[in-house]
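Anyone up for a design puzzle?
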């Protein structure tokens, strides 16, 4: 098993684990980590754009929601 494959396994693990917590904040954080790892995996595989773009967009969405949650919490 090479280092590229290890990154893929870590990405898969974080993605699957993100479905376990009940708190939305933790789900988003864990899923964000998995997405970033999948982006890295796509780059390491030789710029596999579908993998990079899809997970990159989901990571951006997760960051948006995490920031929105923080702003809403401060506002209330």
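Challenge accepted. My sequence:
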């Amino acid at each position: 098993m090479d280092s590229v494959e290890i990154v893929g396994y870590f990405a898969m693990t974080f993605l699957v684990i993100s479905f376990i917590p009940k708190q939305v904040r933790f789900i988003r954080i864990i899923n964000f980590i998995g997405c970033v790892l999948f982006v890295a995996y796509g780059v390491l595989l030789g710029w596999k754009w579908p993998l990079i773009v899809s997970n990159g967009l989901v990571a951006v969405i997760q960051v948006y929601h995490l920031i929105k949650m923080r702003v809403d919490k401060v506002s209330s």
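A detail worth pointing out: The radius of gyration is 14 Å.
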